[in-house]
Write a structure and sequence with these properties.
The complex is a heterodimer of chains A (about 475) and B (about 80). Chain A is built from 13 helices and 21 strands. Chain A is of the alpha+beta class and about 475 residues long. Chain A folds into two domains: about 290 residues, Pnp Oxidase, Chain A (Roll); about 110 residues, UbiD C-terminal domain-like (3-Layer(aba) Sandwich). In chain B, about 20% of the residues are buried. Chain B is mainly beta. The chains are: A alpha+beta (about 475), B mainly beta (about 80).
């Protein structure tokens, strides 16, 4: 039976048991101090801070950096915290290849997120402790580890997406709902042309697997995807003022409408690329109608910046697993796909058996052309002799097998305004130049006379010599490995 | 004392003595710090000229070293009535 946390309160107990939670009892200022704590934790890959006393906001709490390391991801999945990345990936793939599990609707009385309900003129976003995450941000970002749920007006398909939201005034939030995101496609493609406001509900402090599902670029609706990750249905409850459902055990829910014809300033913001890049611009307006929350609510904070934060880790994790699924579905003989979170999910390493020429180009065209394409721009294709999880091996392959003239291929594609290397105009146009590094030797090279021989312990010594050296390793005077 | 701040692409967005429309943030300590309001106003690079101090920030959050001052003429509502 998989260990499943119905909310962050249960999850925090597991973090504490694994030494991955620090409880801070002294008062913490929402204005930069909390953000600075979380940033430092991200950069040191440290335990998650639970901040029990927030300046100006008695009764509110913060949980920072809840899943910013692979150890915490393993805990989230109910696994041994010391599980390896391939082990976590295998478990994730196993669960998400089962049949989708539909959510169940529970009564309001069974939903802790309804313990406090504020509607109408009493709604004030500034009654919530939205942190000033980074000095110089365009505002207080309430939504950094959360999701926004919306519904397709034609077929009723539900989307959960992690789209950042800045508090603008007491009843207004702003944020980029990019047109290539799932939520953006429905808003810009269906609601706006009809002049209709799009109902939304922002879920702050969802259970950790719902949050992971909201980050995943899967075509499966996120409520069902959450069920697959949990191995049982996620419990949802109806919203107060909009026709949407939210996880019953969430900490805070904000309901309202996204306006079709009004855009207000948003940004700058410290972003997942590790820079403050995207231009301050007129962005989507979320008009708030209701706020519901648990007693002693816990606002979750992810602090985007230099690696590693939740977005980098989980987007890297789920993007490459989606690419893995896509490529295998097309019959490409890959060995796997992996993104280092330190690449801010911009670079994917894909291993493949090079059974025909130009297979690397085919891989690049497939992944760049997919719905995943706007989120990354570098593909490194290595052969099946290279361990895609081994940084040393991948760097070695990149610098020795990739021909500078013949092995690097440039493509045009869709991008985001968040790419730091784009100039200002390119960011506004969401340009997305892409590059393939083909780190495979051509298959028409003669294996005896042309293909270089890898010189490593495992490849240039007879098996019996390798075994003898390993058997005598400690006798030689080396430490046991 | 700085009462508000504003983000601009360049200082040319803040012509002295001319009525301008700005989205400014309230810097008063407390729960509503950083709340936006939209105003028409007069601004000046002379920090003493008008009643309120105005911190100027550029597009990536960088602070202009010399504060301005601002006189708020009118609040402006940018959300149409039908959505309020």
């Amino acid at each position: 039976m998989t260990l499943v946390f119905k909310d962050n309160r249960e999850f925090m107990k597991a973090l504490a048991a694994a030494g991955e939670l620090v409880t801070i009892e002294q008062e913490v200022d929402w204005d930069l101090e909390a953000g600075a704590i979380v940033r430092k934790v991200c950069e040191e890959k440290g335990p998650s801070p639970l901040m029990n006393k927030i300046k100006d906001y008695p009764g509110h709490r913060y949980l920072g950096a809840p899943i910013a390391t692979y150890r915490k991801l393993a805990i989230t999945m109910g696994m041994d915290p010391d599980s390896s990345i391939p082990q976590i990936a295998a478990e994730y793939v196993k669960r998400t290849n089962q049949q989708p599990i539909k959510p169940v609707l529970v009564d309001k009385k069974q939903a802790p997120c309804k313990e406090n309900i504020i509607t109408g003129k009493d709604v004030d976003l500034f009654s919530l402790p939205a942190p000033m995450v980074h000095d110089g941000d365009g505002g207080r970002y309430l939504s950094t580890w959360h999701f926004v749920t919306t519904k397709d007006p034609d077929n009723g398909d539900v989307n959960w997406g992690m789209y950042r939201q800045m508090c603008y005034d007491s009843k207004t939030m702003t944020g980029p709902l990019l047109p290539f995101s799932d939520g953006g496609k429905v808003f810009h493609g269906k609601y706006r042309p009809r002049g209709l406001a799009m109902p939304f509900a922002t879920v702050i402090g969802p259970d950790p697997l719902s949050a992971i599902a909201a980050c995943a670029p899967s075509p499966i609706p996120e409520p069902e995807y959450t069920g697959m990750l949990m191995g049982k249905p996620v419990e949802l409850v109806k919203c107060e003022t909009v026709d949407l459902e939210v996880p019953a055990h969430a900490e805070i829910v904000i309901e309202g409408e996204i306006l079709p014809d009004v855009f207000l300033e948003e940004a700058p913001f410290g972003e997942y690329t590790g820079y403050r890049t995207s231009p301050r611009d007129l962005r989507t307006v979320y008009r708030v109608k209701a706020i519901t929350y648990r007693n002693d609510p816990i606002t979750t904070i992810s602090n985007m910046g230099v690696p590693t934060d939740e977005g980098q880790l989980l987007r890297s994790f789920s993007l490459c697993l989606e690419m893995d699924t896509l490529l295998r579905s097309q019959g490409i003989p890959i060995t796997g796909a992996f993104m280092w979170p330190e690449s801010t999910h911009h670079l994917v390493v894909i291993g493949v058996k090079t059974i025909y020429s130009n297979i690397a180009a085919q891989i690049a065209q497939l992944v760049f052309g997919s719905k995943l394409g706007p989120w990354f721009h570098m593909v490194v294709v290595v052969d099946d002799q290279t361990d895609i999880y081994n940084y040393n091996e991948v760097i070695h392959a990149l610098t020795t097998k990739c021909h500078p003239k013949k092995g690097i291929h440039i493509y045009e594609g869709a991008g985001t305004p968040l790419y730091p290397f784009l100039n200002f105009e390119e960011r506004l146009k969401m340009a997305g130049p892409k590059v393939l590094f083909d780190c495979t030797f051509p298959i028409d090279w003669d294996p005896l006379s042309e293909v270089p021989r890898l010189v490593s312990f495992k490849t240039v010594y007879p098996q019996e010599i390798q075994e003898k050296v390993l058997a005598n390793w400690e006798k030689y005077g080396f430490k046991a490995r | 004392m700085l009462h508000y701040d504003v983000f601009v692409n360049s200082l040319a967005d803040l012509p002295e003595g001319q009525e301008v429309r700005l989205a400014i943030r309230d810097l008063a300590p407390g729960t509503h710090k950083y709340c936006y309001s939209n105003v028409t106003a007069l601004v000046s690079p002379d920090a003493q000229k008008y009643e309120y101090g105005l911190l100027v920030r550029f597009g990536r959050g960088q602070i202009h070293p010399a504060p301005y001052s601002i006189k708020i003429l009118q609040q402006v509502e940018r959300i149409p009535e039908r959505w309020r």
